[in-house]
Specification:
Low-confidence stretches: none
Number of domains: 2
Oligomer: single chain
CATH superfamily of the largest domain: Fumarate reductase/succinate dehydrogenase, transmembrane subunit
Radius of gyration: 19 Å
Helix content: over 70%
Shape: elongated
Largest sheet: 2 strands, antiparallel
CATH class of the largest domain: Mainly Alpha
Mean pLDDT: 92
Length: 112
């Protein structure tokens, strides 16, 4: 079931990418078209789709990180194999740091 959900997550991520591409296209047109599309994106069903896509994106990320140690060849430091939990935790810390930097930048740009 987990493998099926992981593969299904790609469909929701694809739909979100298409919606963002359409948003960029509408931004290049007149303001009325852009506003109508953003209103469409704020429809309650669309917001639910966005949250569902976010949940699937997080699921996809977590399962990818958890599979990484088994997909990589054994990593050795000073002749000893690095434990899987260290590899996974470094990926999560990296994702947290990048998210923190991007979130701080968005908050800073939004405040100016």
């Amino acid at each position: 079931m987990r493998v099926f959900l992981r593969e299904l997550s790609a469909v929701f991520l694809f739909v979100e990418v298409v919606l963002i591409a359409i948003l960029f296209h509408k931004a290049g047109q007149d303001a009325t078209t852009y506003v109508e599309y953003t209103n469409f994106l704020w429809h309650p069903l669309m917001v639910a789709l966005h949250f569902l896509a976010l949940a699937f994106a997080l699921w996809h990320t977590v399962t990818f990180f958890l599979l990484a140690p088994s997909a990589l060849p054994p990593i050795r430091v000073v002749g000893r194999r690095v434990p899987s939990f260290i590899i996974v935790s470094q990926q999560f810390m990296g994702m947290f740091f990048v998210s923190l930097v991007i979130g701080s930048w968005i908050a800073w740009v939004g405040a100016t």
